Every structure is written in C-alpha cells, then in structure tokens.
Amino acid sequence: MKFKRSLLLTLCGLLAVSCGYFLSTTKQKANSSENNTSFTLPTTNGDTVKTLDYSSLNISSVSSIYDNNVQAKIAKQIKQLETNNTYDFDNMLVLANPYLTNTTGLYLHFTTSKATKVSYTINSSGTTSFSQTLYNPNGTYSKEHSYQLIGLIAGQKNTITIKATSQDGQTQTKTFTYTPNKLRGTSNNQLKVTKGTSTTKLSSGLYAVIGDKSLANRNTYLVDNNGYIRAEIPTINYNSLRLVQADNKLYLAVNDNQIVALNRLGQMVKSYSLAKSNFKLHHDFALDSQGNIIALATDTNLKKTEKRVEDQIIKINGQTGEVSRLLDFKDILAPLYQTATGIETLTNNKGYWDVIHANSIQLTKDDQVIISSRETSTIMKISNLTNQPKLDYLIADESVWQGIGDYSKLLLNKDGDFTSQAGQHSVNYIPTETAGVYYLEMFNNNSALMSSRPNFSWANYPNTGGASTSDDYQSSYYKYLVNENTGSYQLVQKISLPYSPFISSVQTKNTNVITDSGMVGTFAEYDSSGKLIASFETTGQTKFIYRVYKYDFTNFYFD
Prior knowledge:
The chain has 559 residues and is mainly beta. It folds into two domains: 9-178, Immunoglobulins (Immunoglobulin-like, Sandwich); 192-551, Kelch-type beta propeller (Neuraminidase, 6 Propeller), CATH 2.120.10.80. 9% of the residues lie in helices and 40% in strands. The protein contains seven helices and 36 strands. The strands form eight sheets. Strands 1, 4, 5, 6, 7, 8, 9 and 10 form an eight-stranded mixed beta sheet that branches. Strands 11-35-34-33-32 form a five-stranded antiparallel beta sheet, with no helix packed on it. It is globular and about 75 Å long. Mean pLDDT is 92; it is low at 1-22 and 31-36.
C-alpha cells in the first residue's frame, strides 16, 4: 500500500525527516479481508490537528493495531516529534488518534511556563456540549502536559476549546476545529433516548456499550447521558467483556484470545495473549490485587474431545502473561455432569455440552470468587481458588439441586416469599461493613432454559419466559442481601425490566441502577426507588447489546 507523505517542516523540522518520522495530512486507508476488522486510518483537516504516517507499519486489520511492535513504533514516532520540537500552549502538538484505539480521540502534548490545570469543551452542531477537566499524573497543576481528549462527535466538525488555569486563577484558551472520521460500526452518532418519570439526575460518567451486534464492525462505545457516542474503541472479533481500570491502565478484551491494557493516552502498553494456550475467553474477567487476570474460559482441547464449553476458570499472570488453569468445574461438580448430559440446542454453543455456562466472575478476595452459572440458574461461592478450590455455597431454588449428589446441603436458605433467579447474568458483589454480610445484585433474566437437563421441571419458577424476546414476560433487577453467618439470602430490591432471555447486565452507580436488556437493544438508568430516569436504545436492526457498564474514568482520562 502506498501513501502520500506530506512533510510539515514547521512542526517536525529537518531532524525529524532525517530520523524517518513524518506527519501526514492525507487520508490513509487500511483494508482487510477479515470480517469486522476493516477500518480507515485517521485523517487531518484544519491547521492544528495532524496525523502520523503509518505507511511503514503494515497495518492490515484491527488485529494489527493491538500488536506490541506496532504500538512501540507509534510511541517512538511520537517521542521523536516531542524531542525534536518545542510545543507550548499556543503551538501544541495535536494528533488524531495516533495509537488507533479511539476513532474520535485526539492526543495533546505541550508545556506551560506556569503550572496549570487543563480543561476542555467540545461543541458540535446539533449536539450538546461536552466538558471535562483532564487528569495529569504529574499533579493537578503542572508544566508538563500530555492527554487524550475524549468526546468528539464522529464525522462532523467539532470546535474544541482548551483552557489552562494557573494556581493564581489566570487562564488562557486555545480554540481549534477538527472533523474526525465517521464511526466504524454505525452511521448514527446518537442513541435513541427516552425520558422516564423520575426527576432524579442520571449518574455521572460514560456508558460503555459492549458487544452491540447491530454494528457493522465490533467496537466498544463510550456514550454520554444524552446518548451521544463520545469514543469508539475498535475490537477484533469479540466484545470487551468489561473495562477494568487499575494501576493507571484500562484493561479490556479485544479478541477471544487477547486482553490488552491501554494507558490514558490510548497506547496499548500490555497485551495478554491466549493464542498459544488451549483456552479461549468468554463472558467475564477480573483483576486480583497482584495484577493477575482471573477469567472465565473454554478449554479448546476439552471442546474437541468432550464437546465441553464455558466451564473453566484461568489465571493470566500479570507480569509474565503465563496462562494456567485454576478450576475445571467438573472437578467440583462431578455428580452434576453425570446427570446433566443434554447438548445445547439454542445458543452459540449449539451442539456442545454446556453444563455450567459461567457468565460472570467477582473476586471477593484474591482466592475467593462468586460465579454466576446461567445453565443451573445458580450463584456459587468458591474459596481457595488458587490452591484447592472448595465450593462454599449455592444460591438457587432447591429444585435445581434436588437429587444431584449432596449439593442440596450447600444451598443457602431463602428468607422470604419470592422466586429465585432464573438464567441470571452479571452478578455483582457489594460488600458491607459486617463480615459475612453483603449484597449480590444481578440481572434476573427470568428465562426457563436448561438444555443440559431438558426434562427439568420449572414448576417453582412461575411466569418464566423462553428463548425469544416477548412482551408477555419480564426480566428483573434483583438485589439479594446475603448473610453467610445465618446461611440465608433475601430479596431486598426488585425492578421490572424488558424481557431478555440471555445477554444482559446490571450495575449500581451511586444510588442509581443501570440495566441492560441486551436482546431488545435497550439499556436504562433507574433511581433508587426503581423509577425510570432514562432509557437508551440502539437503532440497528439486530438487537443485541452484550453488557453496559458506566465509568467515571477519574484519575485516568479525567480529573
């Protein structure tokens, strides 16, 4: 692929040319024969925003972006520009999405004569303004400044105003315009927003819309409270599972065999690959206190030999990237596997043996996890995970475990008159100040589906739905108070939600509740009493949003 090069001598200087580093002002394209991976490299327009020259990097697909060598060469090129030139507030270095990890992102670098804090506002015709104060790891007030701007509207002109404020209150501003590329996955910059009856304000932050199958290409979107897409993170052929902010990095999956860590500037600083292991990621992961990744997985060898799927927990060493098995569920639930011999008939695992279908993992401490098992409509607590895993308890209707070994003895007692969860997703652990007492919140799908035991009686689950979306049924936000000291659980909050038989998520943000009824393409935010504040709906024909979580990105992108 050939690219036209334009040397901006006023920015780079002759030294940059001699070192082989260029700024390009022309449109560069990367084409791919792979599905869901084609993309267009960033473009420049106006006098302020520039782009790097990627012609020597052989970028052929999104997978090329998440390559250590490519990212290192991009970082070297930026470093060379910053070394060979002096950038101050009036003449700052502004690059369009240099690391290729945010379609609408801008990279800023400059120094100020006084220590200042920096904020910005983005305006674009027909949209609401977007303002933030930027996080600087050097301190709130600093003379050294490097940032990534989040918030530009794709495919249309944005007016960006940068404001620097010194400790004595003096300010200076710089305004410029830029039109970023259109979004990779959709032609719509805004989701459909419907206001509810609650007068409570939406919580702060950006919604991370993960795994929207209505898109032409796989991406994770960051969406503001008005439904505008403020960032687009490309992924390869899988969804991001969740975003985990830790140690000045943002962890997310970009493929079913790769998790990456991005820094606040958009650079991939770590890649964890499962390509040489016999595991594939699915559904969820967490980070322990040592920076190791604890993830749900499928053993590809067992998938071939036993047709077993989605019943492993693995550890990815945060330092070395080494992949190891922590748990095979068959080892602690052998009697269940002897009973549940049916083959999956409905989901992507059609034709395989999906006895557990673990779909969320929460660490209560480094060697202790809470697992959501959709296939058994059960929540499990497992301790001593890193040594000799032990099943501590089960939360489920007693009918699920009746006659399965002696596991009924591990069931917590249901305190109250309510129907236990069915086909639940996205179980979240919320601690209290009392040892052994905590909350578990979840999306209770209320779906009566169990291919591994097709003759199971759902008599204890009235009004449960099937595999298709329907207005005749409802899912729910469920919040349990679990008391291990008394061996009980009780339902303390319930919110009725649009029915989603499979994919879905929930999250408490401040006192609000965020829910994703994924199979109807709708996520929403409710107040603490369960009244709707607002709902957001994708506009594509395919209704499938894997999960939605909301993040403030404090001490990362924003101050």
